[in-house]
């Protein structure tokens, strides 16, 4: 086990000791193993975070006009092929609850990573406090989104940065069923350091979520100490069908 893993204790409580209202699925995960996976490879899978019913209900939101602040056609911007929509505030209740509950569990990891990388930024315990920091810097536009891919569509390798304040982890949830709703369309991550490059294909089932690095993560150097590993993510070309995904980004955009 990596010596970088610290104080791995996760409880469903607020910092003041009260009971936290969070999706019950989150309590069933091995958060020590999730933290270790993030340390080792920059990503970790949360199996069956959403039920099939919840996935279908979220996918059904995509054709609607209401509830979104903008629609992006990827080919127009050189992002790949496919399209996505940014949700407007207020977010759908399920996504708002997940965003808050996941942030609370990921903030200690994000703070430790910054310390290991020598980054003088710390994140508050609660999402609302971090979003207030974003608003003060002019980052006021919500970033959670839903993506839609069809045959031949793909997403170029990229990083979701959006402004000065960036939370170093984000979450994607696969809403469609591989092999039934679509083929191809794998979630891909790459890692680059001064000496090495690596690519991972992260296998997901319907309802699975992947927590992954937005920009940089600390990685153990060959001679001891920590080095910066630059991460990017994307989606491989869809061969058939239709694929929907929800993305939960914790910092808002300018």
UniProtKB/TrEMBL annotation:
Q: InterPro entries, alphabetically?
A: DUF2086
Recorded hits in Pfam families, A to Z, give:
Oxygenase-NA (PF09859)
Q: What is this protein called?
A: 2OG-Fe(II) oxygenase
């Amino acid at each position: 086990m990596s010596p970088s893993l610290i104080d791995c204790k996760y409880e469903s409580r607020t910092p003041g000791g009260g009971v936290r209202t969070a999706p019950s699925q989150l309590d069933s995960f091995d958060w020590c193993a999730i933290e270790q996976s993030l340390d080792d490879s920059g990503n970790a899978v949360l199996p069956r975070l959403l039920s099939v019913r919840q996935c279908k209900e979220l996918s059904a939101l995509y054709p609607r006009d209401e509830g979104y602040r903008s629609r992006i056609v990827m080919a127009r911007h050189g992002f790949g092929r496919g399209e996505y929509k940014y949700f407007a505030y207020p977010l759908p209740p399920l996504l708002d609850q997940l965003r808050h509950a996941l942030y609370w569990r990921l903030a200690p990891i994000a703070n430790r990573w910054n310390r290991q990388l020598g980054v003088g930024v710390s994140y508050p315990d609660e999402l609302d406090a971090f979003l207030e920091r974003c608003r003060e810097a002019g980052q006021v536009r919500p970033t959670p989104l839903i993506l839609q891919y069809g045959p031949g569509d793909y997403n170029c390798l990229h990083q979701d940065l959006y402004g000065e304040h960036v939370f170093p982890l984000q979450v994607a949830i696969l809403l469609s069923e591989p092999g039934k709703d679509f083929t191809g369309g794998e979630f891909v991550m790459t890692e680059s350091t001064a000496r090495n490059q690596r690519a991972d294909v992260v296998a997901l089932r319907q309802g699975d979520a992947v927590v992954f690095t937005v920009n940089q993560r600390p990685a153990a150097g060959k001679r001891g100490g920590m080095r910066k590993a630059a991460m990017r993510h994307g989606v491989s070309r869809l061969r058939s069908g239709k694929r929907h995904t929800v993305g939960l980004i914790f910092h808002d955009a300018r």
